Amino acid sequence: MKKLFSFLALKLIITSYAQTLKDFSAPEGYNKISEARGDLDQDGRDEIVMVFNTNTRATKEEYPETDYKRVLYILKNTANGLKVWKEAYGFLISSGMGFSPEYNSPPEVSIKTTP
Q1: For the segment 74-106, what is each residue's pLDDT rounded down to a tens digit?
Q2: What's the number of CA atoms in the CB half-sphere (13 Å) around residue 25?
Q3: Is the CB of residue 109 less than 8 Å from the CB of residue 93?
Q4: CA separation, residue 10 to residues 4, 13, 99 (Å)
Q5: Structural Rg of the chain based on CA atoms
Q6: How far from the centroid of its chain's Cα atoms is residue 7's Cα?
Q7: Assuming Cys at both sites, which of 38, 82, 97, 113 could form a disulfide with 93, CB separation 3.0 to 4.6 Å?
Q8: Angstrom distance (rounded) from CA 96 to CA 58
Q9: How confident is the model at residue 11, as a pLDDT?
Q10: pLDDT digits over 3-59, tens only?
Q11: Is 34 exposed, middle or buried (0-12, 13-18, 19+ CB in 10 A)?
Protein backbone atom coordinates (compact mmCIF):
# COMPACT_ATOMS: atom_id res chain seq x y z
CA MET A 1 0.00 0.00 0.00
CA LYS A 2 2.86 2.33 0.86
CA LYS A 3 4.47 1.78 -2.57
CA LEU A 4 1.16 2.45 -4.34
CA PHE A 5 0.68 5.71 -2.44
CA SER A 6 4.26 6.81 -3.22
CA PHE A 7 3.80 6.00 -6.91
CA LEU A 8 0.51 7.92 -7.13
CA ALA A 9 1.96 10.92 -5.26
CA LEU A 10 5.01 11.01 -7.54
CA LYS A 11 2.84 10.75 -10.66
CA LEU A 12 0.60 13.58 -9.42
CA ILE A 13 3.58 15.84 -8.73
CA ILE A 14 5.16 15.18 -12.11
CA THR A 15 1.95 15.78 -14.07
CA SER A 16 1.08 18.94 -12.14
CA TYR A 17 4.43 20.52 -13.03
CA ALA A 18 4.43 19.39 -16.67
CA GLN A 19 4.68 22.25 -19.10
CA THR A 20 1.85 22.31 -21.61
CA LEU A 21 2.42 24.67 -24.50
CA LYS A 22 -0.28 25.91 -26.83
CA ASP A 23 0.05 25.63 -30.60
CA PHE A 24 1.24 28.72 -32.44
CA SER A 25 -0.37 30.29 -35.44
CA ALA A 26 0.24 33.88 -36.43
CA PRO A 27 -2.75 35.90 -35.21
CA GLU A 28 -4.92 37.31 -37.96
CA GLY A 29 -4.05 40.92 -38.74
CA TYR A 30 -0.60 40.75 -37.12
CA ASN A 31 2.37 41.74 -39.27
CA LYS A 32 5.71 39.94 -38.62
CA ILE A 33 8.56 42.46 -38.54
CA SER A 34 11.48 40.43 -37.17
CA GLU A 35 12.58 36.83 -36.61
CA ALA A 36 15.62 35.04 -35.14
CA ARG A 37 16.57 31.41 -34.47
CA GLY A 38 18.83 29.91 -31.84
CA ASP A 39 19.05 27.28 -29.11
CA LEU A 40 17.96 29.19 -26.00
CA ASP A 41 17.61 26.26 -23.61
CA GLN A 42 20.55 24.13 -24.86
CA ASP A 43 18.31 21.20 -25.81
CA GLY A 44 19.76 20.79 -29.31
CA ARG A 45 16.74 22.36 -31.05
CA ASP A 46 16.51 25.94 -32.23
CA GLU A 47 13.84 28.15 -30.71
CA ILE A 48 12.29 30.89 -32.85
CA VAL A 49 11.82 34.47 -31.68
CA MET A 50 9.29 36.54 -33.64
CA VAL A 51 8.22 40.16 -33.28
CA PHE A 52 4.86 41.28 -34.65
CA ASN A 53 3.04 44.56 -35.07
CA THR A 54 -0.42 43.84 -33.67
CA ASN A 55 -3.70 45.05 -35.09
CA THR A 56 -4.38 47.04 -31.89
CA ARG A 57 -3.75 50.77 -32.09
CA ALA A 58 -1.82 52.28 -29.22
CA THR A 59 -3.57 54.92 -27.15
CA LYS A 60 -2.58 58.53 -27.60
CA GLU A 61 -0.97 58.52 -24.13
CA GLU A 62 1.26 55.55 -25.02
CA TYR A 63 2.35 56.31 -28.59
CA PRO A 64 1.37 58.54 -31.50
CA GLU A 65 -2.12 57.57 -32.60
CA THR A 66 -1.06 56.04 -35.92
CA ASP A 67 1.13 53.37 -34.32
CA TYR A 68 0.32 49.79 -33.41
CA LYS A 69 1.38 47.88 -30.31
CA ARG A 70 4.01 45.14 -30.69
CA VAL A 71 4.30 41.62 -29.31
CA LEU A 72 7.23 39.19 -28.99
CA TYR A 73 6.81 35.41 -29.15
CA ILE A 74 9.41 32.79 -28.22
CA LEU A 75 8.43 29.53 -29.89
CA LYS A 76 9.61 25.97 -29.23
CA ASN A 77 10.18 23.89 -32.33
CA THR A 78 8.69 20.47 -31.52
CA ALA A 79 7.82 17.38 -33.53
CA ASN A 80 4.18 18.55 -33.46
CA GLY A 81 5.00 22.01 -34.85
CA LEU A 82 5.63 25.39 -33.25
CA LYS A 83 4.48 25.90 -29.65
CA VAL A 84 4.29 29.21 -27.74
CA TRP A 85 6.90 29.11 -24.97
CA LYS A 86 6.82 32.80 -23.95
CA GLU A 87 4.77 35.81 -25.03
CA ALA A 88 5.53 39.44 -24.10
CA TYR A 89 3.66 42.69 -24.69
CA GLY A 90 4.44 46.26 -23.81
CA PHE A 91 8.22 46.49 -23.70
CA LEU A 92 8.76 46.86 -27.47
CA ILE A 93 8.51 50.46 -28.59
CA SER A 94 6.61 51.14 -31.79
CA SER A 95 8.24 52.64 -34.88
CA GLY A 96 6.60 56.02 -34.24
CA MET A 97 8.64 56.65 -31.10
CA GLY A 98 11.93 58.49 -31.09
CA PHE A 99 13.34 61.67 -32.57
CA SER A 100 12.86 60.72 -36.19
CA PRO A 101 10.13 58.06 -36.60
CA GLU A 102 10.37 57.95 -40.41
CA TYR A 103 13.94 56.64 -40.14
CA ASN A 104 13.32 54.07 -37.39
CA SER A 105 13.85 50.54 -38.65
CA PRO A 106 12.11 47.42 -37.27
CA PRO A 107 13.82 45.90 -34.23
CA GLU A 108 16.67 43.52 -34.98
CA VAL A 109 16.48 40.34 -32.93
CA SER A 110 19.43 37.99 -32.55
CA ILE A 111 20.21 35.03 -30.34
CA LYS A 112 23.73 34.54 -29.05
CA THR A 113 24.49 31.16 -27.55
CA THR A 114 27.59 30.16 -25.63
CA PRO A 115 29.05 26.66 -25.72
Answers
A1: 999 888 889 998 898 877 777 666 555 555 666
A2: 2
A3: no
A4: 10, 5, 57
A5: 20
A6: 36
A7: 97
A8: 10
A9: 59
A10: 655 656 655 665 555 567 889 988 899 989 889 998 888 888 889 999 998 887 766
A11: middle
